[in-house]
Write a structure and sequence with these properties.
Length: 515
């Protein structure tokens, strides 16, 4: 019943502008030049991250060929099909903190003979290594994604990393390439990106920036090859500009440095804040904290500019997303959390930030793909549910590879206590076929926003749109009611002369296609 009520409510919201009160409280405006020459939004900005952590891979992606759960060569069919619809551009694997304890040789060969290891970082869970190198590359091919291998620096060597790359990519008759063939893969795979270490200032080995920078260069020396993977040096967290500085002042061998930034409602790692059942103060605080991503990117970009004014090096936001207190009753080491409408808005706000900095930010990997943190998908046994975050990613697929169009936005503030931020966010891009896509977010949970949009070069063009909202700030898609939060057609935009008027429902994301 709850699911059906949710759907009827969403449809009513989609039609709301027809019956909206004449006097709305939020009036915002935006100006976009649809003819502008923008920076290309790298599709990889919509990238994903899958770590050996809890049920992120085992159960979430991999169930094995003998499972009663429908699968393709051991990969859950439902999850693979959902990810294909998402046009996942790239997947980062195998971690995360796990990367720096992962021995790649444990994950090749007959599955029933692979060792069982302990996942030190995530509850000492037994890792059966059933999802290893062949499974990762097979999975990436199945969903049509590029590959991002994060190699082990913490407990590994440059030699082991080099051998892994050879095993995966060599067309030669070397012993390692032959071993790959003996394990069933004749043709080499492509590694698109290599990450050197993960959080080397923490779980990667508690190194200082001065210790890590030369180590990263040494790894890069042995992993770099003509036409080979782009090399990403394991980067900073938050505003640790000194870490970025240490890497980019002598970036020999690197194509990029990474950045990790999570959104905790409270900002406190001991009590992060509830995933659902939160109040409006937490709602507002969460968005204010997630918007910090912009100042962090600007800060790291400024450091990079000093050494690389040409933007040769990319900034890769290799881990981002919400991090809440774990779902009660679950293993806290498995980082399972509910995913609500709030998470969809978090995703949309971050996409807008990444678009604005697309000249430097050329990949981002949300943490994580399935069942962990701000996941796209939740699974339980044979059931699967798509989260509000999934829907945000899916609605933004037209932005992948499109030209970002700068938007000048004027919005009143949404104020809760001492937390104040713009109520309305707008981002736009032009795709290869010339259509313009405009995404709008209204973070006010109660008030509709009327946005007046000047879209130079597009007056009166054909319009279509989709809306994501829900009855409550913390509405979720549960296994019992999987369609409570889902996109519906949006009819709240119309041309008023040369301007577009968009009636943006409270707490919503809208993506319009113009022309
Ligand atoms: O995504 C979960 C963990 O968060 C990753 O393993 C680690 O890199 C980060 O601290």
């Amino acid at each position: 019943m709850a699911g059906r009520f949710g759907m009827a409510w969403a449809v009513a919201a989609a039609l709301a502008w027809v019956a909206a009160p004449a006097q709305a409280e939020i009036r915002a405006s935006a100006s976009i030049d649809a003819r502008a020459e923008g920076v290309r939004i790298a599709p990889e900005i919509y990238g994903q991250f899958a770590e050996h952590l809890g049920t992120g891979i085992e159960d979430g992606i991999w169930v094995g060929e003998d499972s009663s759960i429908p699968n393709i060569r051991g990969f859950r069919r439902d999850v693979v099909e959902a990810l294909r619809r998402l046009k996942v551009p790239v997947v980062r694997w195998p971690g995360g903190c796990f990367a720096d304890i992962y021995r790649w040789r444990d994950g090749i060969g007959p599955r029933d003979r692979r060792p069982v290891t302990l996942n030190k970082w995530w509850g000492n869970a037994e890792e059966r290594n059933r999802f290893g190198t062949h499974e990762f590359f097979d999975f990436a091919e199945l969903i049509g994604a590029k590959t991002y291998l994060n190699v082990n620096v913490g407990t590994g060597t440059a030699g082991e990393a080099r051998e892994w790359l050879e095993y995966v990519t060599s067309p030669s008759g070397s012993t390692l390439a032959q071993l790959r063939r003996a394990h069933g893969r004749e043709r080499p795979w492509r590694v698109d990106y290599i990450g050197i270490g993960n959080e080397m200032w923490g779980c990667g080995g508690n190194l200082t920036a001065a210790e890590f920078a030369p180590l990263a260069r040494r790894f890069a020396t042995f992993l770099r090859e003509e036409g080979g993977p782009r090399i990403i040096a394991g980067g900073a967290t938050g505003d640790d500009h000194g870490w970025t500085e240490a890497l980019v002042r002598d970036p020999r061998g690197f194509d990029a440095v990474s950045l990790h930034q999570y959104t905790l409602p409270t900002g406190d790692w001991t009590t992060k804040g509830a995933a659902v059942g939160f109040d409006e103060a937490a709602w507002a605080q969460t968005f204010q904290r997630t918007r910090r991503m912009e100042e962090l990117i600007v800060g790291h970009d400024a450091v990079m500019d000093r050494h690389d004014a040409e933007n040769r090096l990319a900034l890769i936001v290799a881990e981002w997303g919400s991090w809440y207190d774990p779902t009660p009753g679950t293993n806290s080491a498995f980082l399972q959390q509910e995913n609500s409408l709030r998470d969809a808005l978090i995703a949309a706000l971050n996409f807008a930030i990444f678009h604005r900095h697309a000249d430097r930010v050329r990949m981002a990997n949300i943490a994580q793909m399935v069942n962990v943190l701000q996941a796209m998908i939740h699974t339980r046994g044979e059931r699967m549910v798509l989260t509000p975050t999934y829907h945000a990613f899916e609605m933004f697929t037209p932005f992948q590879g499109a030209q970002a169009l700068p938007a000048q936005v004027t919005s009143p503030d949404y104020v809760v206590g001492d937390v104040s931020q713009p109520a309305v966010e707008v981002t736009a891009a032009r795709d290869a076929a010339g259509a313009v896509h405009v995404a709008l977010v209204n973070v006010d949970p109660d008030e509709e926003a009327i946005v007046s949009l000047a879209l130079a070069g597009r007056g009166q063009a054909a319009l279509s749109g989709r809306l994501l909202t829900a009855e409550r700030m913390d509405s979720v898609n549960s296994f019992g009611a999987p369609e409570t939060v889902r996109p519906v057609p949006f009819n709240g935009a119309r041309w008023l002369g040369e301007r577009l008027e968009v009636r943006l429902p409270a707490k919503s994301v809208v993506v319009l296609r113009v022309g």
